[in-house]
Specification:
With 118 residues, the protein is mainly alpha-helical. It folds into two domains: 67 residues, Arc Repressor Mutant, subunit A (Orthogonal Bundle), CATH 1.10.10.10; 40 residues. It has five helices and two strands, in the order αααββαα. It has a two-stranded antiparallel ribbon with strand order 1-2. A hairpin with a 3-residue loop joins strand 1 and strand 2. The longest helix is centred in the last third of the chain and has 28 residues. The chain is elongated. Keywords: DNA-binding, Transcription, Transcription regulation. This is GntR family transcriptional regulator. It comes from Actinoplanes friuliensis DSM 7358.
């Protein structure tokens, strides 16, 4: 599950975010504890806790004292909104800049997209 490209705690946070976005984890659903997560993936519990803490700070997870961590009620909608913004910033805007440089207009791009990938 983990690679060497980014810190493991960030990979944990991103993995849980992807599970929320895909619907694998539902809103108000309990997630594994940091100790369960650490044991399952054979990582340091402090690393798992750091990833979970980030998700709590971002409002993706919330704590129920003495019970565990749960997916926030609005987490999926918030994550979708963030990813949509990032999609335009990271993917669409650079593509449009490149298209302008090589003389491709928006109508050609739309026609290409509607025709499906080649």
């Amino acid at each position: 599950m983990f690679d060497d490209r980014s810190p493991i705690y960030l990979q944990i946070a991103n993995g849980i975010k992807n599970d929320v976005l895909s619907g694998t984890l539902k809103e108000d659903e309990q997630v594994m504890s940091t100790n369960q997560y650490a044991a399952f993936y054979q990582i340091n519990p402090a690393t798992a806790a750091k990833g979970f803490a980030q998700l709590v700070d971002e409002g993706v997870l919330y704590k129920k004292r003495g019970i565990g961590m749960f997916v926030s009620p609005d987490a999926r909608a918030r994550l979708r909104s963030q990813r949509r913004e990032r999609f335009f910033t990271d993917v669409v805007d650079p593509m449009l800049a490149e298209a302008r440089m090589v003389g491709v207009d928006v109508a050609e791009i739309v026609a290409h997209l509607e025709g499906g990938a080649r």
